[in-house]
């Protein structure tokens, strides 16, 4: 009897027998026909199904000895290797299976899984895509949809979610993912409809409400955003990330106390929420977690103060918290997550000397944020200067310091490198800077890797144009990455950080006692504070009609709302009392609800006069300039005054009233007036401020004379290089000392 005849007789028995009996029968036949590849394959599959992996692999090897291109046996060996976590062998065998049979869908799928487990995600998804070319499968469309979202490859993600919906049109998860992708594609209305459809299918889907909250925030609908976030945690009170999102939205809109309560609830539910996502989630809250929460809440300073008492309480709470942390169990495991969006930025708006508080905070954090790094030896013949910021784009910081950076790069003895923090949004300004400097590098999103990137450049000097606006740069500044490190006045207050050696300021903006305001050594440069390029005269709307009633006086205070200190209310009240035709206009801060806090504060501090204080929407540059040009007078705030806005006002020949404070951040108006040789808008006291402002609005002839003086003199504050030249000399002296 032939081999094939014997196998046909045995087939019914093999289909019905216990696996051990089938194994015995196949073994007997193999003794008779040891070179029968089919029998070895049948035996291998039987053993594999019953997890006798070593023997199964031996039979697959026998098949491949006889038939080297037998794809099912290569697949079988790959499957066994994958099951035993031998990923390298699995990859090798499964690739051989695919080479032998390119349309072997199961082999492609398992090969993708092996590569995924090896961390080769890009290759893995290429093989899953190949699977889908052979046959559509829901599981793979779901997987690829999520993968391409993570890569921000929205068109591919969209294609897969549409296939997902075609297969499962009533899947709420699919509609949620569809909404997320449309949101990322800036298609707000279709995204909103997709989220609403998900809720129709699954009304209790809390994460969808969170996504509606994100969408509403992006569209400037803050009331709707807060309502959506609140609904998410109402539906799922244990939803820790929902509480975190709610907290962030509350804080952005000035609801600080509620935000602190919400973040406490989030971390109560999931103490590891602000640490690395891969860390195991613990439900137990340690002393260390409580300490971190206390610091986070203390640093969540109100963005706008309801009253002076709230300001003093917030400052006292931060001071008390820092004192308590000195004697408690504290640890920072993941700085970027735990300090996400958090710095000491808002402390500068309280109008007090921040040296002690910032130094105490920085010295405390220095223990946890300052790894010991060996510096590379700088080259002896050139001065290598690095600058780190998230603002090297169309941003006020670059408007101030872009000219200085380009001037440094033109010096033959200098080499200037720019390091872009991860939150940077490169644009045409970035490209222009890239052309003018010797190098531009995007920093890794990992703090550790970013430190190494900078360290390996062997810099002589590392400069931060500002510290506090971006939490990544702020955390980076705690490391010694160059022999000398300095900060510019992009955020004009002391950093307090021990590894920052020099604060570069300007003599016209500092009092003789100013060193008392800084933990760094204070370097005061002469001349106009920055080499500011005159703003272009962009085309404006032909009509300057702002819809204002005739006969009114337009007082414009175009400063961010953080700068409206409670002390400023008395000046506003004095102006409105003395000028019955006065209307004061401020600008809302983007789409937030911060102005509502000021509205309530003004109701208390101004009484009926508050009806003449108006909040304009955040607006494009052209509309903003129309308001600026039509203002009778611009009001500079104290104790933190204007920066870029003052340059724009003076360029448009609009009189500005300013009362210089004790600190550099409140002396910009004085510095610019001095540079022009003028002083008509500089007040000596708050009472003097009121008188000057009212006179400028009421006495049209004097107002015109002041505007003519500005027209004659404002060129003196633009394109000035004296300050930059002095900095270059200081740097060359440093180079000479090398």
UniProtKB/TrEMBL annotation:
Biological or metabolic pathway of the protein: Protein modification; protein glycosylation
Signal peptide (residue range): none
Extent of the TPR repeats: 172-205, 206-239
SMART domains in UniProt: TPR
Alphabetized Gene3D superfamilies for the sequence: 3.40.50.11380, Glycogen Phosphorylase B, Tetratricopeptide repeat domain
An example Gene Ontology molecular-function term: protein O-acetylglucosaminyltransferase activity
Residue spans crossing the bilayer: none
EC number of the protein: 2.4.1.255
Keywords in alphabetical order: Glycosyltransferase, Repeat, TPR repeat, Transferase
Residue span(s) of domain O-GlcNAc transferase C-terminal: 542-708
Family listed: Belongs to the glycosyltransferase 41 family. O-GlcNAc transferase subfamily.
Name the record gives this protein: protein O-GlcNAc transferase
Organism (species): bacterium (Candidatus Blackallbacteria) CG17_big_fil_post_rev_8_21_14_2_50_48_46
């Amino acid at each position: 009897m032939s081999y094939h005849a014997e196998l046909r007789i045995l087939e019914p028995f093999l289909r019905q027998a216990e696996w051990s009996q089938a194994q015995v029968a196949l073994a007997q036949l193999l003794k008779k026909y040891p070179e029968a590849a089919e029998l070895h394959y049948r035996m291998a599959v039987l053993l594999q199904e019953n997890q006798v992996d070593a023997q199964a692999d031996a039979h697959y090897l026998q098949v491949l000895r006889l038939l080297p291109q037998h794809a099912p046996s290569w697949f079988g060996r790959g499957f066994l290797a994958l099951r035993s976590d031998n990923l390298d062998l699995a990859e090798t065998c499964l690739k051989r299976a695919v080479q032998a049979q390119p349309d072997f869908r199961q082999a492609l799928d398992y090969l993708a899984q092996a590569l995924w487990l090896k961390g080769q995600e890009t290759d893995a998804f290429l093989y899953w895509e190949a699977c889908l070319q052979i046959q559509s499968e829901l599981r793979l469309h779901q997987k690829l949809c999520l993968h391409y979202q993570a890569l921000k490859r929205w068109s591919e993600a969209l294609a897969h979610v549409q296939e997902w919906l075609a297969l499962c049109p009533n899947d709420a998860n699919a509609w949620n993912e569809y909404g997320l992708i449309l949101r990322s594609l800036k298609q707000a209305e279709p995204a909103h409809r997709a989220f609403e459809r998900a809720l129709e299918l699954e009304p209790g889907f809390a994460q969808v409400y969170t996504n509606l909250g994100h969408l509403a925030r992006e569209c400037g609908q803050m009331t709707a955003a807060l309502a959506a976030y609140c609904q998410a945690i109402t539906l799922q009170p244990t939803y820790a990330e929902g509480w975190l999102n709610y907290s962030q939205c509350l804080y952005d809109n000035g609801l600080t106390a509620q935000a602190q309560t919400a973040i406490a609830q989030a971390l109560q539910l999931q103490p590891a929420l602000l640490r690395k996502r891969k860390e195991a989630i613990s439900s137990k809250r340690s002393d260390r977690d409580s300490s971190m929460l206390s610091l986070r809440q203390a640093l969540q300073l109100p963005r706008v103060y309801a009253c002076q008492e709230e300001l003093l309480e917030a400052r006292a709470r931060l001071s008390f918290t820092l004192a308590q942390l000195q004697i408690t169990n504290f640890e920072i495991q993941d700085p970027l997550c735990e300090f996400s969006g958090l710095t000491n930025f808002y402390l500068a708006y309280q109008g007090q000397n921040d040296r002690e508080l910032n130094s105490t905070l920085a010295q405390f954090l220095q223990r946890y944020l300052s790894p010991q790094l060996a510096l590379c030896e700088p080259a002896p013949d050139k001065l290598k200067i690095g600058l780190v910021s998230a603002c090297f784009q169309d941003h006020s910081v670059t408007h101030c310091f872009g000219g200085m950076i380009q001037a440094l790069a033109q010096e033959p003895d200098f080499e200037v490198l720019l390091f872009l923090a991860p939150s940077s949004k490169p644009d045409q300004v970035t490209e222009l800077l890239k052309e003018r400097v010797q190098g531009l590098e995007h920093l890794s999103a990992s703090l550790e890797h970013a430190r190494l990137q900078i360290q390996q450049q062997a810099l002589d000097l590392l400069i931060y144009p500002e510290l506090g606006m971006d939490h990544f740069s702020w955390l980076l500044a705690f490391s010694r990455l160059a022999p000398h490190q300095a900060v510019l006045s992009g955020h004009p207050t002391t950093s307090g950080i021990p590894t920052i050696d020099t604060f570069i300021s300007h003599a016209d903006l500092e009092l003789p006692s100013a060193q008392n305001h800084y933990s760094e050594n204070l370097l005061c440069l002469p001349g106009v504070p920055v080499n500011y390029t005159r703003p272009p005269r962009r085309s404006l709307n032909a009509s300057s009609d702002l819809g204002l009633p005739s006969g009114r006086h337009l007082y414009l205070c175009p400063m961010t709302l953080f700068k409206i200190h409670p002390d400023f209310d008395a000046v506003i009240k004095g102006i409105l009392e003395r000028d019955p035709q006065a209307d004061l206009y401020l600008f809302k801060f983007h789409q937030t609800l911060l102005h509502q806090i000021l509205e309530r504060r003004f109701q208390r501090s101004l009484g009926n006069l508050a009806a003449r204080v108006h909040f304009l929407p955040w607006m494009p540059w052209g509309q903003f300039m129309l308001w600026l040009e039509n203002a009778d007078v611009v009001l500079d705030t104290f104790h933190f005054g204007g920066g870029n806005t003052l340059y724009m006002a003076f360029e448009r020949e609009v009189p500005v009233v300013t009362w210089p404070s004790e600190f550099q951040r409140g002396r910009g108006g004085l510095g610019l007036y001095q540079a022009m040789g003028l002083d008509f808008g500089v007040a000596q006291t708050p009472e003097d401020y009121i008188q000057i402002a009212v006179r400028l609005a009421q006495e049209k002839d004097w107002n015109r004379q002041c505007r003519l003086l500005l027209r004659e003199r404002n060129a003196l504050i633009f394109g000035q290089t004296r300050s930059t030249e002095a900095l270059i000399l200081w740097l060359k002296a440093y180079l000479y000392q090398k």
